[in-house]
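ok trying again, last paste got cut off:
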Amino acid sequence: MPSPQTETPGLELQSPKEAEESQTPAQGSWRTSSRKEPNAHCKDGTRLGLGTLRQAFSRASQRALTQVSKEDTGLFRPSSCSLFRSFRQALDGGPAAGHVQATPEVPSGVMNGVSQQASTGAASEELKPEAEGKSVADLITERQLLAAFEQLLRLETRLVAEKASRTFEQDPTAFARRAMDVCLHYDGLAAELSAIVRETLGSDGVDAAVLAELARVVNAEEEAHPSPPDDGDFLRTPRHWRQHWEEAVRRSAQERVRRPGAGWASAAAEGASGLAQLLAELGGSVRRDLQKVRQEVQPAYAAAGFPAWEVYLRAFHSAVAQRLQELARDARGCEQLYVLLDWAANVYGSPDFLGPPGLALPAEPLPPLLAPDVWARLESDYTSFLEAKIASCFDNILQLEQSHWAAAEDPEVLQGLYQAPLSVDVHMLVAEHVKAAGAISAELEATTLRICTRALGLFVPRFEKAFLASEAVSEPHLGAYINACEELRTGILSRFPGTLEELEKPLVAATCSFQKHLLQGLQRELQPLFRVVCTRDWLTQDWLRPLMDKVVRFTGHLQRVAQPRAQETLQEVHRFVVREYLAQALRPRKRFWAMERMRGSQKMSLDAQAISDTFQGLGSEATWLDQAIQCVAEILGETYKDDIQRHLETLIRSYPDIRRDHILAILALRRLGCRRNQHLLQHTQDLLRAAAGVVGAEAPRGRVLFEEIKVPSAIAVRITCI
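nice, full thing came through this time. structure:
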């Protein structure tokens, strides 16, 4: 039989065996100081619960305090924070009813004794259930959390009752030791709860029964302390373990979110690829943790009515947001900023990232991953870098084209058309950046499109100037760049209609410029051949064949130019040939007499037919040009002078841009005489006035012929006629 022990009223003491075991301090025990154990303070010399406390702390220390950071432990010690204030009240003979009052400071010798006693394992009085016979520390170690809490709650209730009955008036330090014992065990229990939360998402995890036990303990604490007590007893102050559990979840989420970013310094040095890899690891880690919460943690807590999914979801959401803002502060360059924006919008923001479809989300929506001002700053920084990047890309495109010119490389022919890399490169540049921005937000897409449009509008005239100043100007290259401008105009404007205003003008101007230079090359070749028209050699030579051969060769290039630009250019060639022919005919170097005039009329008629047939065979749609040379030929060879008026009427109606000077030049070629000329001029005056009105108002677009033909002045023509 064990020998009887001296008891402090209301609390059990340890058995002799426990007292014997307590003589050897346990390694790793819960304590706040390394000083030696003080002498017992009880009047009867009995050491109240010291061995038990040290033994319990020894068992639980490796599991609790060594795994819980100082910050985590501090979260669960509101009772310890208020403990010393109550100690002063007890030591100074506080109110019997237990109401807290402001009291003078306790002498340092007394407080040092209390502190030393608590720090070295003050007397531990534990209630031992008859069934199990386990101490609170054993229960905590074995994670029988609810049983440990209930035992502590009974101990707390008994201690409060003894304090109210003034049991400790003669020995206030006994109350301090026992209160400290209760508080330290509460803190040990809280530390174990924190350790469970930390281990929950670890590789080994935590048994579902332990999680359910944790939830029941929190519910039991809320039931035991539903609201702050009215008597001011520090031991009965609510510990708000649900809030502390939520805080532990948040800290766990923060630790796990920061773990994949440990190598951010090296990842940042690798540029966008390093950041993308880091975010991929972060996303994978968060996905796995949330999946574990859904499949294992939430069901374990659900039985106790704990909203584990929502708490964990909000915790990870907050942790990811904080981590992303840290990464955003260190991000540099367009690529890294885009990687961040894209990950936030399309990876984390995807519907299935936080959970499978149909999973219940929190009733209150989650806040934005990045605050609006942070998101706006990232987009602004991204667009600033993007402007410089787009301008640099256009510079690279120009340099690439210049390298083709320097190498004297002819453009490729693709599907029967000249193809320049210019259009493909610009299309890809604009489309890729606009599409990438659209994947993040509509606002960023619109901003990126404006940047690309503005840069392209500046690039086109710069490119045009550089090309025309180079030595690479040739028919194939001009045809290729006409195609490129037309492809950009139709492709980009059809895909992005909002760019019409900024891009239409420079692209059309560049296309017209390339067409003009293409025509000028042919005109320089053909111009000398027209000088023979209306000369003696003209009557005897087949001068038209070499001219039309050059035209046919030129149209071979036009066949590789896209429509409608090819047809426009062909019609311009057709118009040029007719116009230059008439220009030479209306200022002849030789005066024809009767027989020569008839031969000249026949020759001109044959030339008109050959020109019309050739261009019709080449596909020219400018049939309105066919009558011009033919009418002049008929006037030149008309034997019945009264029919000359009919030919003039046909000419004026067909070509409203004809003028009186042109009529005089034609009549001078016919050599009718002054009186006949005056009669014909008076008859055609009304028709000329009507034709002038049509040219100013309703003349078909592009139908200009005689307006561009210069003839001698009216006085000179009249002198010639006389």
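cool. Strands lie at 412-414, 417-419. DSSP finds 28 helices and two strands in the chain.
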